[in-house]
Propionate 3-nitronate monooxygenase (Pelomonas lactea), 341 residues
Amino acid sequence: MRLLDLPPIWMAPMAGEAASAALVAAVSAGGGVGQLGAAYLAPARIGEIAADIRARTDRPFGINLFCPQPWLRDDDALDDYLARLAPWHGELGLPAPVRPERFEEDFEAQLAATVAARPAVISFAMGDPGVARVAALKAQGFSVLGTATQVAEGLLLQASGVDAVIAQGFEAGGHRGGFLGSPEGALIGTMALVPQLVDALDIPVIAAGGIADARGVAAAQALGASAVTVGTAFLLVDECPLSPAYRAALLAARDADSTLTRAFSGRAARGVANRVTRELDGVALPAFPQPNAASRPLRQAAAKVGNADFISLWAGQALPVNRTPGTAADLVAALARGWRT
């Protein structure tokens, strides 16, 4: 399916708790484009979830991966990070934290599983997938997207042959998807980034960040976006299997509670501030993905016992704009009212 044949309302690919077949399928079945955030999934699990999505809907969906990140193992920095986690482990009755046996999944195996799953769209963040890889995927019939946080990244992605560029503004929840300059990429707002990418590129631009209702959709379209991706608002729909503590934190958060933090993963990500983000603010941390793997037991245990102090509460700056309860289809329809056809 060609990219321009897809609906203009997309769900941002969210990893972790939101990486759910039920949620992705509900968005696609409801008239949008659901996307599976597969960056942390084992290859076999990607195939299983994709099969579950397809069993629930015959509508197109996407799968997103993180491009491989260059990083050096730093056991001294990792041990210091583990020491900072230890008191919180104790509060939850967990054993002392230890160095993870594995820090990340094999990217090539993930990509092979994604290809085998046959989504309509394969998207990438945190890097340029490259000319050869993009060409190979397009030759197999996939629409291929890359993520840019600045014009220079968009131009590189266009040169690699992607079908469209996702313009990730500063407001977006979750991890930063940039790859030039700092590991976090540029910190440009969506309203400034989208028109600059639209003017610089010859391919469609999909707006991401700070879009939570029909007004945001209309604004993105007015700036030249060919589609929009919405993440945070979908975290609160009925089909999202969010832990009660995470959901309660999102419902209670105010505008000034949004923060950009490296505390949980070692790479800047936007979410609701909590005890971990505050107490690790400004602390030197080992590079991503080392903290991400090291903090996973704490985060998972905290979600089970309902302690939001130790959960990575990823959410964008527009969180307070739209916390209306309902189904994924309800939200897709509400967002679509802002799109002029």
Notes: Residues 3-336 form a domain with the TIM Barrel fold (CATH 3.20.20.70). The first strand starts at residue 9 and ends at 11. The longest helix spans residues 75-91. The chain has one domain: 3-336.
